[in-house]
Amino acid sequence: MTFRTKNSIAIFGRTPKSAVSGGAIQASNQPGSNVDDHQTQMPITTTPGLLEGLRVYAATPNQKVRSAIYASVVGPALRAGNVHLGSILAANSLGSLSGDLITQRALDLLKLSFPALTAISSNFSDSPGRFGQTVSTRLRSIPGVSNYVPGTGYTTQNAVTNDVDVVIDQHKGVPITFNANELASTQRDLFGEQAEGAHHALGKAMVDALFGLITVANFGNETISALVDFNRSKATSMAGALTNRGVPDAGRFLLLNGEYFAKLQDDSSIVSYAAFQRPELITEYMLPRISGFQPHLAQTLPTAETLVGFGGTPDSLAIATRVPSDYTSVMPAANNGSVSVVTNPDTGISVQLVQYVDHVKAEATWRIAIMFGVAKGNVVAGQRLVSAATGS
């Protein structure tokens, strides 16, 4: 399959040949393709490019290619509005994609609900993992500067790398089950309605584990500010503390609990800037960058040790994820469902999707699962914001 995006061309495997350009896929028959002539030439009656994209998506076994197709064609078409996905899948014999696409759409929301997952150092993989294994996540490092000497050139130096070991010690899943009466009582997409909440629960579990690392023992540097005194200048002082410790500016983030985020949003200097530069920030409950920080609302930030916020860089915290192994492969003849891996192109997070039915109980179950671990990174790159001095 040749998969073209706007800026690059990559060659993958032996799957149907397609071209992706401008938000549409044109599929054509090739030897071994499972997209037949009738399907390929069928007139498009839905969102332009979506039906072709869904067909090639369904015919592509490579998960990374599927993720790229979703990012370029399927996802944008679904977000464009007024698309009745259920009827499209049913009318074109693509019903098996329903659980996969429900999972993709819900994973899209993790970036918005839990921005910390994409702001820190991460090692997301769609490879099966072993519970208890150790994964090394590489942190950013700053190389030294060499003087040029005529005749000898630049002094060579060994590359400096900083790795942090993350133990995959948490295995979380969210199952959703409906019985025959519940499924027969409505035409609503019951599993689709629950998917967003399921992913929110899974994302919250990962973020809570990350936030649990923000303690005095792990990050000893702090800035003190009562809520009434918190403003842009306090954020600037946090940035200054990081700068004084030689922490780079790139990728800095500022996590704030609900009260402190709202207080910063009310700062007149920030409101004036947003109204002039990007007025949509005011209505979308977002904030512009402040002293190098990108502020994020962190509603589940723990309150222990008077913690109300945390400023850092991507290398201050680390998370690694893996998908559970396919346990049905041990007894394939006994498998009465499907197990797949869904990788979201925006966040890079992969989850295991399991779908099965229990004929005795007349129930259908949809479940997502993930294994992960978290670790503190470069401790000098983190600055806690507290409402009162630690121990007071």
Concise structural overview:
The protein is α+β, with helices and mostly antiparallel strands and 392 residues long. The chain has helices at residues 37-41, 50-59, 63-79, 85-91, 98-108, 110-113, 116-119, 180-184, 190-211, 232-244, 258-265, 268-277, 280-283; strands at 2-4, 9-11, 17-21, 24-28, 121-128, 134-139, 148-149, 153-154, 162-167, 170-179, 222-224, 253-256, 294-297, 307-312, 317-323, 337-343, 350-358, 363-376, 382-386. The chain is built from 13 helices and 19 strands.
List keywords for this structure.
6-stranded mixed beta sheet, single chain, alpha+beta, 392 residues, 31% helix, 5-stranded mixed beta sheet
Tell me about this structure:
With 392 residues, the chain is of the alpha+beta class. The protein is built from 13 helices and 19 strands. A hairpin with a 6-residue loop joins strand 16 (337-343) and strand 17. Helix 2 (50-59) runs antiparallel to helix 3 (63-79). The longest helix has 22 residues, at 190-211. The protein is globular and about 65 Å long. The termini are far apart.
